Amino acid sequence: MAALQAIPGVEVAAVADAVRERAQAFATAHGIARAFGDGAELLSCGVDAVTICTPHAAHEGAVLAAARHGVHVLCEKPVALDVAQAHRMIAAADAAGIRFGVIFQRRFWPAAARIRAALDDGRLGAPICGGVLARLNRDADYYAEPWRGSRDAEGGGVLITQVIHHIDLLQWYMGPARRVTGHCATLAHPGIDVEDTAGALIEFGSGAVATVQAGTTFRPGLGIQVWVADARGRTAGVAELPEGVGFTDVWTVTGEEEFTGRYRGADLPLAAIHDHLAPFHARQIEDFVAAVREDRDPAVTGRDAVRSLEIVEAVYASARTGATVLLPAPG
Ligand SMILES: NC(=O)c1ccc[n+]([C@@H]2O[C@H](COP(=O)([O-])OP(=O)(O)OC[C@H]3O[C@@H](n4cnc5c(N)ncnc54)[C@H](O)[C@@H]3O)[C@@H](O)[C@H]2O)c1
To answer: GFO/IDH/MocA-like oxidoreductase domain: from which residue to which, for each copy (predicted)?
Structure first.
């Protein structure tokens, strides 16, 4: 919030929460003039843009309401519970002529942006293979929040809520996915009806192949690695260890060899994970504000955000049916 309030010319005018007292407490803590118990009231108070930080199930309604009011909208990940909702949100934003961005702040880590830059300037060729290895720790307290661990409210588990960030990075590097085969299971968290363990094989339109292994069952968590390699064997990766702290991992581009493994063997509290990520949230919010001012697309649009959701949804469909899922060609 401090970073948002520090952007020149930006005034955080109001906050809303379905629990009005929470909105009021937040407003008081951050010097925000108005607090509402309903998003519709906030949208009617004359704001230019809103950022949506509600649980996933409320994203669609909030973005459609912002579009009806002609208010630009930056929405938390995952963009929606499913791809159909995301397409309705994109269509509403297009029809209203508003800017619609989705938070994937890990793209703003220097270590993650560095891989995209190496692909853009040819130091890395088109990836032929890649992967995500996500070994996370989420305990019973985490899943005690009623909307977490519920398929209806969360749409899924570790893939849609945690690892969608890293699937977003993977497809940012590797291009559109074409076929997905997946398996999901709930193995160590009794009482949740979403996956705490998942594995997937992704084939990309380029012919490249990647694997995803993800779980929230590790004690302690062992962080996350995302990596890609080109046809000449050059490999680049970004790792997050402890969770929330991103750094350059394997990097075998000639002249830039580097390895900076920093295993600490301990989990950070969720609040500390978020503190580490906050500066990169701030950079994405700054980009969104600039996009509105410059009348251009934000760094991550609703259309960009739907790609990782398509992959996650395809893993779920494959896990249900046992079949490989063919994704639509990018429109
Ligand atoms: N980008 C990231 O790294 C990151 C990190 C954490 C959470 N998130 C995302 O942020 C969203 C919220 O997650 P959280 O962990 O902060 O949830 P939370 O449960 O801690 O907080 C959600 C808040 O939204 C309020 N709320 C619920 N429905 C509402 C509605 N219809 N209108 C207004 N307020 C409503 C709740 O009262 C609550 O105060 C999720 O979509 C999550 O994926 C993203």
So the answer is: 114-227
Give the number of the atom of ligand 1 that is nearest the alpha carbon of residue 17: 34
C-alpha to C-alpha distance for 54 and 63, rounded to whole angstroms: 11
Q: Which of 47, 55, 37 is nearest to 73 (CA)?
A: 47
Provide mean pLDDT across the span 8-15.
94
Position 264 pLDDT exceeds 60: no
Alpha carbon of 99 to ligand 1 centroid (Å): 21
* pLDDT, tens digit (0-9, with 9 covering 90-100), for 235-254: 999 999 989 999 998 888 87
Q: Are residues 206 and 322 in the same domain?
A: yes
Can you count the helices (H) and strands (E) in the chain? 12, 13
CATH number of the domain where residue 85 is located: 3.40.50.720
**Candidate of 76, 138, 169 to mutate for ligand 1, largest count of ligand atoms within 8 Å of Cβ:** 76
Distance 278 CA to ligand 1 centre (A): 15
* CA–CA distance, 33 with 24 (Å, rounded to integer): 10
Residues 31 and 168 in one domain: no
- Enumerate residues 6+ apart whose C-beta is below 8 A from 220: 137, 265, 266, 267
